[in-house]
Amino acid sequence: MLALGLWGLDRGTMWRDEGATFQVARRSVPQIIRLLGRVDAVHGLYYLLMHPVLAVRPDEVTLRLPSVLGAAATAALVGALGSRLARPRVGLWAGLLYAGTPFVSHYAQEGRSYALVAAGAALATWLLVRAVEQGSVRGWVAYGAVLAVTSLLHEFAVLLVAAHGVTLLWSRVRWPVWRGWGCAVAAAGVVLAPLVVLSRGQSEQVSWLRRPGAAEAEALVRAFAGPGRPVLAVTLLLAAVAVPAPLPRRGPLGLSAVALPLVVVGPVLLFAVSQRQPLFLDRYLLFCVAGLPLLVAAGAERLLGWLPWRRTVVVAGVLAIGAAFAVQLPGQRSERLPSGRGDQPALVAAQVGRLARPGDAVLFLPHYERRVALFYPHDFRGLRDLTLAASPAASGTLYGRDTGTGELLSRLGRLTPGDRLWVVWDTTTVGGRWFRAQRADFAKWRALNGRCREEASVFVPGGAVSRYRCGQGTVTSPPPPSPR
């Protein structure tokens, strides 16, 4: 997993969410805390953890390296769970299967919290198994602490509690186990409660999500089990074998009793809740993936375990996993291309750096496109931001506070025919219904086109840079192009 994570780690551009991590984590701790009171509280602990990391070296490789290490740790923990609950070769197969999943590789190379959340969930599951086996107070304290930290990294990890509860019900554990588990969960809940209250007040950040249906459910299955039909079919078949014919228990908890709730309960609960309050997104459920390779490895063990040639069986399993990886290799390669995440703000910034000169003015549409300048400030050095009223750090916001339309008109009016204005705009939103509903940004666009004339544009994936000439009197410009 570590080798896969390091393969092509520097894609040459950050995408939108990674850039948020990059620019927020580089603020001072008081500035980060101020921001969290307004937005992104759900990522607060992650930003604080990334603050010292990016202080060492602020670049894209350093930004993604903690996720690579988190994914590698998760693969190791999946292997450890398989070995503890079944036998070493089951653990080997499960760990390799997890590492080779394209969905896992995607978030192993992204500067966000999801790979670390998956590592925390796998560790909490391993600690649950150990605590049930040993029944010590220290074991439950460790479990509760890891559960709390994991949920603070992303509060949807609390769905892990439901999965573990189903595991204990399935295994018919005794009262002392329930008592220890309940105390650990209650303590984690107390720690998590302030974040839940704070994040509920910031729910507009996920207002863009829609109620999931069959298409979203199928996409999640393919993400977990493999996008290609052959791999998907074999994966689901082996998992189906493991459920009705579980491997013999090696302790109080069986492998199927741990793995099946882990992969099923969280997605089902989030899907059901999202029918009323849409919150369903595949990356929020990355921590559930670990249950599937455990089931697949258990199914393979059930089918092949009767064979007498143990080493041959182990090698055959590894070769089969290698074949599955080879089938999905094109998808793995595409993940490592600069276009693997859609938008490429580095290309937009590079165009500004190539075309603009010190003293030119710049304007961002919508306002969040200022992110390009925040991610790659060297390309915007010497340019005047026409709409910035307060910087992101000073205003406690992600992208800064803009001036009103009246002030923008005044600033545009002070531009002379010799001044150049560069407009950095998002081609996926400008011109669409959503953009027209954003009153401040739409008013900004109207003010721009009432005072200035577009002369040329350069388009790159997800964005564009347009040169405007102002100070020539009122002009009428056509409406912005439809989103590409």
From TrEMBL:
Its main location: membrane. Coiled coil: none annotated. The chain crosses the membrane at residues 63-83, 90-108, 114-133, 140-166, 178-198, 219-241, 253-272, 284-300, 312-331. One of its GO terms (molecular function) is glycosyltransferase activity. It comes from the Bacteria. It is found in: Cell membrane. Its EC number is 2.4.-.-. InterPro entries: LipidA_mod_glycosyltrf_83, RgtA/B/C-like. Pfam families: PMT_2. It is a multi-pass membrane protein. Residues 59-191 form the Glycosyltransferase RgtA/B/C/D-like domain. Keywords: Cell membrane, Glycosyltransferase, Membrane, Transferase, Transmembrane, Transmembrane helix. PANTHER family: MANNOSYLTRANSFERASE YKCB-RELATED, UNDECAPRENYL PHOSPHATE-ALPHA-4-AMINO-4-DEOXY-L-ARABINOSE ARABINOSYL TRANSFERASE. This is Glycosyltransferase family 39 protein. It comes from Streptomyces orinoci.
